[in-house]
């Protein structure tokens, strides 16, 4: 009788009147219709309202469609937090294509891999990254790739590498382009690459439904009043800026764009643009805390959302002493960025500053878009006691979990277990239901908010002719959160200095991945010859204690 029809199944089917596919593209159409004259984007001398911004996104969609770009195609962009990057978050998926935002810190080899793996049809290039993009395009050997140069009069440098400019591309499009929502909210909206435990990054696929729900969840998580002024200190290439391009469209807010994240630029913008919200890794918070006091001349309420390596309680306390309210969130590229929030409870209002910072430094509870969060045995998936002591793997499930990894069904299958997404992070569940990270199951190092694969760094170290063995772990760092620390055994009869090996790494990988510390010693191993990384992590922490 389980399948028997009941009275609510008769004549009450979904139809175009009562069911519409969820997509964040609806947000900009609504905001442009209701608040056309309200400022949408600010960047130096550029200031556009929502009507103008919406028209430009439709032109972009139209221009792409005229070139045969549509569903199943990838449009990549490598750019700083400039207006064109914001526009691409709407214009590209309006054409039916999938947006791929490329990490601006990657080397040409990694960018070339992404262009080929994603089968990119169009590449939009910020002049600051023209050299890297041009070299990557040559390595990718894709003569059919359409390269479009973004021009930025405020940036001094760069060169044209494409066949037309972004504005020339827009000029071929129709500002009244009749775009449509996806046929299915499960359709891909964006592609984000994340480092795994192997050298090649994995392509994380987002769907329209998850993007819409996580974007709205950001508003609820922060209690954002309508028309927030949001400063782009978080890279838009990172998890689509934690879905905040779509959040600000839903909020009818102002995007305050920023090319370089520096205190001397951030504080005047906070003051002059009346910034209410911004995001950033703990390194950004630390940078602002240590900025000269004369820069900190804002008087209005400001909120910051932080994630990445767990922020030290002292950094949180110092930010709040400066007048910036801190909310810590936690997530992965695979969960659209923040999916867990250290939600504040009114019963904690009376605690002292140190206890407040300690409570805020826990990762927290699921946001409104995440359906499930647990700490469990990674083998059996049995939930572990919420005692704040028993360590297990953190698992999530819900609408803000990725579709899977592009062209990698085995990795996708491995990440989904028993109806849960396995985060690879180790943590505890406190009695009040708040999760706190204790370690990482995978040896991923989070430095300045960016993931670094220890295996990728080890692969480079092993290329040096004098290196016998190498292992890389995270070393706590006051500025970056974590930095790579390499333990190296030199081949018998050879000599090798830290400076020489660091120079070799700089020649063979992106600068932010280069080990900041190298220790030459024999590596501890199990009886089967496996390097005992947990002992090296302990050593790295000891190094930190010794300064």
UniProtKB/TrEMBL annotation:
Catalytic activity of the protein: 3-(methylsulfanyl)propanoate + ATP + CoA = 3-(methylsulfanyl)propanoyl-CoA + AMP + diphosphate
Enzyme class: ligase
Pfam families xrefs: AMP-binding, AMP-binding_C
Signal sequence segment: none
Family matches, as InterPro entries: AMP-bd_C, AMP-bd_C_sf, AMP-binding_CS, AMP-dep_synth/lig_dom, ANL_N_sf
All residue ranges annotated as the AMP-binding enzyme C-terminal domain in the record: 456-530
Gene3D superfamilies noted in UniProt: 3.30.300.30, N-terminal domain of ligase-like
CDD domains for this protein: ttLC_FACS_AEE21_like (cd12118)
Top-rank lineage group of the source organism: Bacteria
Name listed for the protein in its UniProt record: 3-methylmercaptopropionyl-CoA ligase
């Amino acid at each position: 009788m389980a399948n028997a029809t009941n009275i609510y199944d008769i004549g009450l089917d979904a139809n175009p009147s009562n069911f519409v596919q969820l997509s964040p593209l609806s947000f900009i159409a609504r905001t442009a219709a209701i608040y056309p004259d309200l400022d949408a984007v600010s960047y130096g001398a550029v200031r556009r309202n929502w009507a103008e911004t919406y028209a430009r996104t439709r032109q972009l969609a139209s221009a792409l469609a005229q070139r045969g770009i549509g569903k199943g195609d990838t449009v990549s962009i490598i750019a700083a937090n400039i207006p064109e990057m914001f526009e691409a978050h709407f214009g590209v998926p309006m054409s039916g294509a999938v947006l791929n935002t490329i990490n601006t810190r990657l080397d040409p080899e990694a960018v070339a891999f992404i262009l080929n793996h994603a089968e990119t049809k169009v590449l939009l290039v910020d002049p600051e990254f023209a050299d890297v993009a041009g070299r990557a395009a040559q390595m990718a050997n894709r003569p059919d790739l359409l390269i479009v140069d973004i021009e930025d009069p405020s940036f001094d440098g760069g060169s044209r590498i494409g066949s037309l400019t972004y504005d020339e591309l827009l000029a071929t499009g129709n500002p009244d382009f009749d775009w449509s929502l996806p046929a299915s909210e499960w359709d891909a909206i964006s592609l984000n690459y994340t480092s795994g435990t192997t050298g090649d990054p994995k392509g994380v696929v987002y769907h329209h439904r998850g993007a819409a729900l996580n974007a709205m969840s950001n508003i609820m998580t922060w209690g954002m009043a309508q028309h927030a002024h949001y400063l782009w200190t978080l890279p838009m290439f990172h998890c689509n800026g934690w879905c905040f391009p779509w959040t600000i469209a839903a909020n009818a807010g102002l995007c305050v764009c920023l090319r370089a994240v520096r205190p001397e630029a951030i504080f005047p913008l906070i003051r002059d643009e009346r910034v209410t919200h911004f995001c950033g890794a703990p390194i950004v918070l630390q940078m602002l805390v240590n900025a000269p006091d004369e820069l900190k001349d804002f008087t209005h309420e400001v909120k910051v959302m932080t994630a990445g390596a767990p922020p030290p309680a002292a950094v949180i306390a110092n930010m709040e002493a400066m007048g910036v309210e801190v909310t810590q969130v936690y997530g992965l590229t695979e969960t659209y960025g923040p999916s867990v929030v250290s939600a504040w409870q009114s019963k904690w209002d009376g605690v002292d500053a140190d206890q407040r910072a300690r409570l805020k430094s826990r990762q927290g509870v699921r946001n409104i878009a995440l359906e499930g969060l647990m700490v469990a045995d990674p083998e059996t998936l049995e939930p572990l006691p919420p005692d704040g002591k028993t360590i297990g793997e953190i698992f999530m499930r819900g609408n803000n979990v990725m579709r899977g990894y592009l062209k990698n069904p085995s990795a996708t299958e491995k990440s989904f277990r028993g109806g849960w997404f396995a985060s690879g992070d180790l943590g505890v569940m406190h009695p009040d239901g708040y999760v706190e990270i204790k370690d990482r199951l995978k040896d991923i190092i989070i430095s300045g908010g960016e993931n670094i694969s220890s295996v990728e760094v080890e692969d480079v170290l092993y290329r040096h002719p004098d290196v016998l063995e190498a292992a890389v772990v995270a070393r706590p760092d006051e500025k970056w959160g974590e930095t790579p620390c390499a333990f190296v055994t030199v081949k018998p009869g050879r000599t090798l200095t830290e400076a020489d090996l660091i120079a070799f790494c700089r020649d063979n990988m992106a600068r932010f991945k280069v080990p900041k510390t190298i220790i030459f010693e024999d590596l501890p191993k199990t009886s089967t010859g496996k390097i005992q990384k947990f002992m090296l992590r302990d050593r790295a922490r000891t190094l930190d204690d010794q300064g």
